[in-house]
Structure formats: structure tokens, C-alpha cells
Amino acid sequence: MSxxxxxxxxxxxxxxxxxxxxxxxxxxxxxxKDRCDLEDFKALISPAALPYLEQMAQKSHxxxxxxxxxxxxxxxxxxxxxxxxxxxxxxxxxxxxKIHRRVLTDSEIMQEVEVIKGxxxxxxxxxxxxxxxxxxVDYLKNAIRLLRPHFAQITCEVQPMDQADYETLAAEGxxxxxxxxxxxxxxxxxxxxxxxxxxxxxxxxxxxxxxGHAGVHKVGLGALIGLEEWRTELFFLAMHLNYLEKKxxxxxxxxxxxxMRPFTGGFQPNxxxxxxxxxxxxxxxRLFDNExxxxxxxxxxxxxxxxxxxxxxxxxxxxxxxxPGGYAVSPETLEQFNINDDRTPVEICEMLRSKGYEAVxxxxxxxxxxxxx
Length: 373
Hints:
This protein is of the alpha/beta class. Strands 1-2-3-4-5-6-7-8 form an eight-stranded parallel barrel. Helix 12 links the parallel strand 5 and strand 6.
């Protein structure tokens, strides 16, 4: 069964009701288990679990220590382009926003790299708007060739592609792909994505499976928090993760929790997730899955990120710029969204050391592919 077929057996409203119906007893049963299933996950993200947050946090901390130790992987985004053919109502890069558009040239990419390498990063996330014509496979293939000698790990957060395209980029040295569904609410999805290729709900939903078939080493999943009721979003996200881990067990997975931030266009979130609820979500995912990477970006404030270090998170961005050329070439261009933690990577490392944690700059090398084959 494909994930699409599995997904279509569920109704959003039914899932939302079943989460709300979970009781304190359901939460206690989930907390007592060594391995939680999807029904347990529903209990852990339910309103009934909020009084148990301290217990969830303690168990999440212990589970994370056993699997990852006191480490935090650091990565940085490199925005290659803000061109986009979609008209997502919540995004600063929407084709309807009248902003200066640009695609970094080879020499501009290398100017950005000089600054990023100076900060110490080995893990690089390439980000673009979704514009296959200007920043399609050929552009990304060339960019990865330029960057591969300088970084241990290169991942992409770009438009969904066909399996053959992913195979091409993986052969060039692409380590992983992050692709967020934005919302799993199929009926409401068209309101947020009225035009462009991104309007195809199922093509996006099936992207992680194409990545699995293409043999991409790491797949990042997430939902944009602020569009629809967050508990139901996260259940479908957990269900997707669970499906993929069973079908593509050799692939590594990462979960992100992007809460909406201010941007050009002014869309206001339909749903507000509090800091306390985000902690609940992070702990619930750790109790559901001890192996998955949990990532938190500079969308969140410095003080809040500091508190998340011991609660299950295993990866953080640092020193981020969310505009093409933001590090060296053109710092004044429009950001995709405003960052909320502007500390330098050195300051992030000092914060981690003060908590007894070690910053991990590199946990992967392209030569490992030869060892796996």
C-alpha cells in the first residue's frame, strides 16, 4: 500500500476528534511504554497530556541522551534563489509579492561559501523558491558540484521532483532533502496553495516516497505550524514518518517544527501554538521515535531554543540568513521570513557548552557512501 492509499483511509475530522477524546489514563499508558504506537502518540499530543508535560520532558531527555548523548548537530541554510512560481498565501517568496528576484551565480555562491566556511559549518542546507525553470535540476547539479569539495553534508529544501531527478542529484553528492507538506488537511490545502505546481497536494505528499525509491540518505519532514489545527497535523506527520521508516528502513529521518514567522504579505496564522505546546510536540515525537532527528531553526527565540536543548532536539541551525546572498553578496535582499535568534555560531556553541553539550559540525562524509555499498 502506498502512503497515498493509507492516507485516504483517514478523515481529518475523525482524527481531530479522536485526539481530543484521549484521557489522562491514555497518557499514563503511553508514558509507561518503552515503545509508543500511533494511538499512544495521539494521547501524548492531546490536551489531556498537558498536565504530564514535566514527566514527558524527563523521559524525552533520557531517551535522547541514550541515543544521541549530549550532542547537538549544527547546520546553516544557504538561500540560492528567491524565484518562485507558486502563490502560497503565507510565504514571502510568493510569485504575487513584488520583490526583487535573484538567482545566485557561481561566483556569488562561492562568495557566500567563504563566509559560511569561516563560521565553521560542514553541514549545508541549500534553499530555493520553487522555480524549476530557473533553479531546476541542472542548476542544483551545478551548485552541488561547486559546493561538494567544501562541505561534508549537502541537503536541499527545494521544489519536489521526480525520482530520476533525485537520483541525479544524489549521484552528485546530495545527502538529503527536506520537504514539508505544509498542511495535511487535503480539503483546506487549495486555499493556501491556489496556483503553481505546489497546488498538487498528492504530488507533494508522495515526494518522500520518491526520495526513498531514489535512495536519498536522509529525508526531512514537517508541517507548517499555523495553518491548521496543529495536533491533527502532527498525527499525520507521525503517521507519515512511521510509514516511511517501515518501507525505507535504511533512510535517516528528520522532523522539523516550523512555526509561522512574520514575512512580506502579512498572512496571519489561523492557529497559534504556544511554547508549552511546542515542547509537548517535541517530547511526544521523541517518545514515539527514539531514532529520529528533531530539528529546531532560528525561527524560535534564543531563550526558547536554549531551553529546548535538553528536551529532545538534536539539530539546530545557527547564524542563519533567509535571503539569497544574505551572508556576503546582497544582505539587503528580502528575507523569506524574519529570524528570531540572531546569535552567531560561536555564541550558540558557548551556550551548548554551558549546558554540558557538544556542538557537532560533522557527522557524515561522502566517502561513507562507498562504505555502505
